[in-house]
Amino acid sequence: MTEHLSLTGRIDGKRDDLIALTQELVRIPTLNPPGDNYREVCEYLRARLEARGFSCELIRAHGTPGDSEKYPRWNIVARYEGKRAGDCVHFNSHTDVVEVGAGWTTDPFGGELKDGKIYGRGTCDMKGGLAASIIAVEAFIEQHPDFAGAIEISGTADEETGGYGGVAYLAEQGLYKNVQHVIIPEPLQKDRICLGHRGVWWAEIETHGEIAHGSMPFLGDCAVRHMGAVLHEMEESLFPALAQKTTSMPVVPLGARSSTMNINSLHGGQSEPEADFTGLPSACVPDYAKMIIDRRYLMEENKAEVEDEIRAVLEKVAGARENFRYELNEIWSVEPTMASKDAPVVTSVAKAIGDVLGKEAEYVVSPGTYDQKHIDRIGKLKNCIAYGPGLLELAHKPDEYVGVDDMLDSAKVMALVLVDLLLDPEQVTPAQ
């Protein structure tokens, strides 16, 4: 306990540094799409971490979705070697943030500090978590420079658009082959351990018709009406069936413990005109309509079952409507993942939460996916969780913020995890 007080006190002493670091990260507008300023944020992190003894590598994810000469997908991996062999603990944070949106009362990239909160796009999701992990690691190394193993910190691209230019690419390059423990500081609240996430299956449904003059629709075949029939059948049979499916996964919020499906977009007929076009649309029966669906599924389901449910809806409509023609194409998918409560990183974080916060950790599962999917699926590493400061419901919202005290507490938890995983028992003594 003396050791814990010494290390956590060191982190309290870094409060101003933590605030400044978070503000500086937020002031680099790494908007995705399109992928602005990835190199700039990586260079900023490299300058800080190299000055503290880390070896740093900047890695561009050539050829991944979105990567171009205008918007290259840059990532940074920083590593600090211990004094002898041991496990490697890796902290992974994504550096990209989503669009600003309307409704802000603060500067989205100002990093304003007010009433113990730092405001700005990405404060909660997840530059506050990145800053907390850096402070935690720096404090641990200062107090225990003779630790065993290694510590890595990565700042990666594109999590908000699938992570293929970030963690997926790094996993494909073998980054996680020599890593034993991964913590992703996503904003799941400082007393929660996120074990994993639900599965996702995105698909595109197309209906086809025949174009004709809008004054004589009987001479054509309206693809939008066909799609309307699909929507009606979904409302009548699919959505009620999904609501009845429940899971043993501790998904939060409670509404996500059932299977869900979102209609992500819907379009039929003529394309929207350019913004400066002032004319009228032409009179045509639409011969094409497209819907994109976002289906989230549970550990108790599988992808084939999910696809079969959608195809059954389409086949039922086809049997009831003359000339109904459709196409169903998968866009992307990720299977559900969930670490065991007995995994080493889980038990270490749970112990640290008890020491810092004086309460038992809550175990949760995310309703949506994050980069754990790639560390599990490609990196073949199950000993991976999300743990970090911030409230998930603030992510992507106007006036997004992260609490300074929450970041400090999370940093203390992360630092004590390093004590548990990288120190021998005889090393757990106060710094002299």
From TrEMBL:
Metal-binding listed as a keyword: yes
Protein name: Acetylornithine deacetylase
Key words of the record: Cobalt, Hydrolase, Metal-binding, Zinc
Recorded family membership: Belongs to the peptidase M20A family.
Pfam family of the protein (one): Peptidase_M20
Matching SUPFAM superfamilies: Bacterial exopeptidase dimerisation domain, Zn-dependent exopeptidases
Enzyme class, broadest EC rank: hydrolase
Xref: InterPro entries: ArgE/DapE, Bact_exopeptidase_dim_dom, Peptidase_M20, Peptidase_M20_dimer, Peptidase_M20A
A GO molecular-function annotation: acetylornithine deacetylase activity
Positions of the Peptidase M20 dimerisation domain: 196-319
Gene3D superfamilies hit by this protein: 3.30.70.360, Zn peptidases (3.40.630.10)
Listed cofactors: Co(2+); Zn(2+)
Family annotation (PANTHER family): ACETYLORNITHINE DEACETYLASE, ARGE_DAPE-RELATED DEACYLASE
The enzyme's E.C. designation: 3.5.1.16
